[in-house]
Please model this.
Amino acid sequence: MAPRATVDRARALRFVVNALQGRLSVPLWVIRSRLASLSDRVALQIEAVSPGLRVRGEAHALGAPIAFAARIDADGVHVDGQRRTVRIRLSEVELSTPPDAPGPLAEAIRKRMIDTDNPATLIGNMMPLPDFIVEASGRDVVIDLTRIPAIERDPRLRSALALASSYLGVTGIIVADDAIVLQLGVLPGGPKEAAISTARAVLFPVVRRLWPEGFET
Model:
């Protein structure tokens, strides 16, 4: 087995080479390890189904064990004013439950009463969605990265994200070689958007200093 330092150097070199070629890779083993530590109530497995992912899992919902599977595809980060959105598509959704599982949800699954062709609409109708999910319709879920709580609460971080992503953005997201590959592009929102984001980032400290009460939480 190669020493850890050698492996780390090889990974760092591969990261730099990919970045210079306009792409960054996130190995799926990193995501799998994070998922394994998130919760003991939901068992999740992910596999590469290029250009997307397939997610399989089991969970208890309304007192019944539910097995589920879905394909997940995503596009790049869209630049629209101060919004930075990602569209995620859910397809090939499968739901199953044991014949003796109790409860209305299990019964609905057994009778095929759930519309798995439009999973995003189903999710939006079944539960309240967090603010960063700005749309859930048909098969598509749209996430606004600037409304993720940690980013939304911090005006400086939000401004920095807008500035950085207006110059170098993620124009595509695919899965290849058991890794999520982020395809990078320059000025994804065009020169005008980059100039506006720069102006906001430059003016932010001045406005904060002159009008601090406007930034109080």
